[in-house]
Amino acid sequence: MTTAVQQKGTTLVEVLIAVLLLAIGLLGFASAQSQALRLSSDALQYSRASWMADDWFGRMRANPVQALNHNGYLFDTSNNTPSAPDCARHDCSPDRIADHDLSLWLQQLDDILPGATAANQRDGRQFQLTIRLAASVEGVRPEFVFVTRL
């Protein structure tokens, strides 16, 4: 006659399966956190680019004659940009104000979005501002395009 022995506790196989399931769950959580951080960073960069575009378009609206009839507000940061006249201390003509706005805005762009480049083009009364961010971790250079009409 054989007697049945009741098992008490857990076996090593059950413990290993539990540890494996826990590890898979933690890896999934870490992956989700990494993705959330990346998306949060992307959203922050887009918000900053949007704020910079709004600031630039506001500067153009404050000097509409120069923006619409001359090239003072058209630029590409791959080209040389004008030095800033000191319009805070001296009266400036509308074209000098445009140079002043551009110089200050480009300095802000470099402070807020380091390594970013920008270009502003006009087609009649419509302006298109393109801001290209510095390369991200994946090597992709995000580009944001903003359009307004004066």
Short description:
This protein is an alpha+beta fold. The chain has helices spanning 12-62, 64-69, 94-112, and strands at residues 75-76, 117-123, 126-132, 143-149. 51% of the residues lie in helices and 15% in strands.
What does this protein structure show overall?
This protein has three helices and four strands. The protein is α+β, with helices and mostly antiparallel strands. It has one domain. The chain has a four-stranded antiparallel β-sheet with strand order 1-2-3-4, with helices on one face.
Core attributes:
alpha+beta; 15% strand; 4 strands
Unreliable segments of 5+ consecutive residues: none
| Assembly status | single chain
- Give the strand content: 15-25%
Overall helicity: 40-55%
Number of helices: 3
Rg: 28 Å
Q: Return the domain count.
A: 1
**How many β-strands, per DSSP?**
4
Look at the helices and sheets and give the structural class. Answer: alpha+beta
Described by the principal axes of the CA atoms, the overall outline is rod-shaped
Biggest beta sheet attributes:
4 strands, antiparallel
Q: Write down the secondary-structure element order.
A: HHEHEEE
Output mean pLDDT: 84
